[in-house]
C-alpha cells in the first residue's frame, strides 16, 4: 500500500522509535508507525507515546522484505529506521527507500554499517537526489555538533572525541553491541586512513570535564565520526571513545563481550546470532524506564588540534534517547520543508547544519549552551 503520511517510523514500538513518534507529534508531522507486529505497535503507541491521542498517525504491520517495505514507503518522503542491528537488518530498508524514492535516516552507531552505506549506497542515493543519513543520534550527532563548533576555527585537523551518558542501554542496543563486536572491527582515522583499534586494549580511562573522577571508556565500535570525517578535507585524524558514567557497568562490559565472543566463535551465523541475542537478554531484558533529566545526563567533549591551534568544546545535556528522538524528528520535519544541504551519504550536521541541530536541542531543553575554548 502507498501511505498518505509523509514520514514512516520503522521500528516504532521500540524505545527510540516511540520517542521519534512523540517528537513528530510535537512538530505536527503525520506519520506511519510501522513494524513487524501491529499489536505490539498499537500497545506501544497507546501506552508509551505522550500525547498520542492528538497525533495524526496510522499503524502498519509490514514484513522485513525489500518489496514489502518499498510498497509501504511509496508515497512517503522520509523513513526513520530504528531496527537493528543495522548491519543485519539495514540493507533491506535502504534498498526499499531507494526503490520507493524516500530519504533514509537511522540511529546506528555500527561503524561497519556506516561504511557500507557510504561505499555501497551513497552514490545511488546522490544520483536520485535522496539523503542517506545513518547515525543521527545523541551518541554521535551531539558530539559531531561539538566537533563542528571546534572546526569553525580554520587549521585544526585532528579530533579527539569523548561521549558519556547516564543510564542503561536498551534491549536493542545491548544486542547491537554484542553483534557488532562479534562481526566487525572498530577503527579510528589516521591521516585519512582507517586504522583498527587494538581489540585487546580494554578499558581506557578518560578525563571528563566537570568532575574529578576519571571515567572508563571503550571505542564503542569506533562510532560514526571517523566515517563521517574521512572525506572531510579539514580533518586528517579522528578518534572517538565513550561509555556510561556507571563505572561498575563499564567494568563489566569487556567481560560480557569477551565471554560472548569466546562462546560463539565456532558457531555458524544463525546459531551465533541466537546465542548473542540470548546473552543480550541476560544483560538487559526489559525496556528501561522513561528518562529522568536528573539521572540521565549526557556529556560530549571534543578536543580539536592543528599545527598551531587548539579548540575544546563541551556540551552538557540530558536524556540522550530523547535527544535522539528529537534529532530524528527534526531531520524528518526539515526534509519535508526543504532539500538537505547535501544529497547521498551525509551526516546529520552535513545534511542539516550543526548550528540548526544545536538550536533544536537547546530549544527543547536537552542541552546546555556549549562551552567552547579556542587557543592560538
General description of the model:
- This protein is of the alpha/beta class and 376 residues long.
- Helices cover 43% and strands 22% of the residues.
- It has helices spanning 15-26, 38-48, 66-73, 86-100, 111-127, 138-151, 171-183, 225-229, 247-264, 269-283, 320-337, 348-352, 354-363; strands at 7-10, 31-35, 57-61, 78-81, 103-106, 131-133, 158-165, 187-190, 193-196, 204-206, 215-217, 237-244, 297-306, 309-318, 344-345, 371-375.
- The strands form four sheets. A seven-stranded parallel sheet has the order 3-2-1-4-5-6-15, sandwiched between helices. It has a five-stranded mixed sheet with strand order 12-7-13-14-16. A two-stranded antiparallel ribbon has the order 8-9.
- α1 links the parallel β1 (7-10) and β2 (31-35).
- α1 crosses α11 (320-337) and α3 (66-73) crosses α4 (86-100).
- The longest helix is centred in the C-terminal third of the chain and has 18 residues, at 247-264.
- The radius of gyration is 20 Å and the shape is globular.
- It starts with 6 loop residues before the first strand and ends with a strand.
- The mean pLDDT is 91.
